[in-house]
Amino acid sequence: MDTSDTTKPCNRGWPLVLLPLPLQGHINPMLQLANILHSKGFSITILHTRFNAPNPTNYPHLSFLSIPGVVVDGNISVSSIVGILNFIEYLNDKCFNPIKEYVFVTSVADELKLPRIVHRTSSVSSFLLFAAFPVIRDMGYFRRYSDEAFFVLSQSYEHFFAEMKSEALVKGFEPLKIKDLPKFLTSDPEGPFHKYFHASSSSLLAQDQTSISWLDKHPHNSVLYVSFGSLASIEEPEFLEIAWGLANSKQPFLWVVRPGSIKGSEWLETLPDGFLERNVERRGYIVKWAPQQEVLAHPSTGGFWTHNGWNSTLESICEGVPMICSPSFGDQFPNARYVSDLWKIGTVLENGFERGEIEGAVKRVMVDKEGTEMRNRVMNLKGKVDKP
Ligand code: UDP
């Protein structure tokens, strides 16, 4: 076992081993949890792959152990739910034996009869929704709920359903019934972790701090922040619709365009000639990766156009920022429905990326009375989250 980048374990408290899925949206909450548990006196070891490894120097109080043998090449894509399921299968296969040497996780923990806790980084409601999918499907509701219909398109979802069911049982839930869901949906005793620790130190990409100095120059609640997280990717025509929708809205925007997130492009090269000079330099700013929590907490940020990853959704609520929702896959769909239909703190772009609809949504959230009402409601929700 390669322990070359191992830091010395802290000699205090009960030992806990944490193994995050090596993706940004999982590493952030897992390291926040690690900090919380450490502050309660536990001795924490983070087991990680070399791929997307967290930076141990940001956490001198935690120990880090690297699992060897996980090689992530160009064949693995994590920008879709099928890609992520394949990636998890690959990790399960490659990590089983090395982890056994250190101790751990599901089948390893079962074999060694060790207690384990699964930290799901999605919302309770989306977890329960997915766990109930087989029932919903058998009742024939998928035709009516278009957001979820994509789940039945691939065989791999059968495997996913089985995983969810076994996890639900491990957590001690009764086999799920739809009528029981509401009683789970209202319970949120511990989170969100963002209240306790910022996710900045676990960022895998360099966060462009000029985002903050650019925001400093703008009036209160005037800027729309645009980011679709660490995994989602879009087609080139969609990118252009986003660009024109933002430009036509005439509202200031801070836009994260992650290199590689536009299929077939490096970065901004597909924007038409003169677009940057005419539309971006005047009222916009484009960065490759932003300090998201600081951006959302900035007084100039008045709206967040998001893919509704659960971290992004929570971070927006914690800072009282209304949302425009463009879910891409998985739990992002139910998250977006909660934001728009239940909490009424945002609006979903129902037709994907279409410049006219984008322009209308940006104006509604940033300028119109409807946006002010959404902002009041999300501030109210933030107040509830802030309560000890
Ligand atoms: N994030 C960031 N800078 C960015 C965009 C995102 O630091 O420019 C962080 C964000 O604060 C969040 C995480 O990356 O904690 C993304 O997680 P989320 O669950 O929202 O989406 P995922 O990337 O897993 O799809």
Automatic annotation (TrEMBL):
Entries under CDD domains matching the protein: GT1_Gtf-like (cd03784)
Protein name, UniProt field: UDP-glucuronosyl/UDP-glucosyltransferase
UniProt superkingdom: Eukaryota
Keywords annotated in UniProt: Transferase
Similarity comment: Belongs to the UDP-glycosyltransferase family.
GO molecular function, one term: UDP-glucosyltransferase activity
InterPro entries registered for this protein in UniProt: UDP_glucos_trans
